Amino acid sequence: MSRRTLFTVAVVVAALVVVGAVVLALRRGREEQVSVPTATPVAGSWYEIYFTTPQRTGTPPSGSPGRLDEKLVALIDGAQRSVEIAVYDFGLENVADALIRAKRRGVAVRIVTDTDNLENPPLKRVRAEGIPVVDDQRRAIMHHKFAVIDGETVMTGAWNFAERDTYRHNNNSVVFRSPELARDLTNEFEKMFAARRFGPTKPQDVPNPLVERDGTRVQVFFASEQEVPPEIIERVRAARSSIAHMAFTFTLDQLGVALADRALAGVGVWGVVETTGSQTQFSEYGHLKNVKNATAGPPFPGCAQGPSVVQDGNPFLMHHKVFVIDERTVIFGSFNFTQAAAQDNDETLLIVEDPTMARAFLAEFCRVYNVAVGKTKSGR
Q1: pTM of the full structure
Q2: Dihedral through CA 166, CA 142, CA 2, CA 342, nearest 10?
Q3: How confident is the model at residue 39, as a pLDDT?
Q4: CATH, domain range 3-378
């Protein structure tokens, strides 16, 4: 969970309010049941998309589609040369076991993490094994969530490598088999691991800012060394038919204004916002829920009828950071829609032009939206 992002929201008072709300959200998670259908991984010609299957208690069965941890373990177990991980929260024992196995068979394993999570027991185990770990040692956060295997395969998205993120929260992660994308993320990794540079102090270079394969275009951005919000706003303002968004934290005013403008122009704008913090005056949820959406009927096939923008229904956390535009463009990664992400943190953002990927993320949107609408109708 990326709660520390809320500490660096522009107004300190707002940040404290939101942090307190996070604690309440975790408490209410002990009391309520979440019911979400199983998500099935979607495969393109060179990528696979995974979504968690949140539940209240226990661990999803081994081999279930929502077990992102098992996918990462399999990738690490298949590594022959190198494993590079940059992740805000590392707390999975089976991933630690896989990294230790990799190190013992001669694979070069390296990790970058946020100082706040340096003492997590699984991370202490890998450090005791002699696996080097670099932490950012600053107030702003190292918020990336990626792994690079053998310089050829990338796993990245909103998912932290932690138990709650895996079993309780709504999350996504995409596996790309692409040396070009692997080089981009390794380049970002080296800035932190080798050069010890974080946030806006890092060089802005990206070796392969645009990667194209089999009709799919992927653009890669890293905050806060690059200006990321204008890239999102540009795509939002270009929307012609529909915008679906899922936001863990949403306080970027300019992005909220762009969404409202498109809705008023007749574009169908639909959203699910994490309940925690959404009631503060700084959240865009309060602004967007009052904007008239010109589109009637359910948002997309598989979605229930409901309001254009709703608070989520997961009693734990809805952790996605996603836009799907015109059922073709997918914007996702670790980047929360906040000033802290834009100006201070270490973040990954990918913009993908691919209808197949868009359909998968829209199916996940409907899963999350339907639970939220069900919560609203039941009065919970």
Answers
A1: 0.89
A2: -130
A3: 62
A4: 3.30.870.10
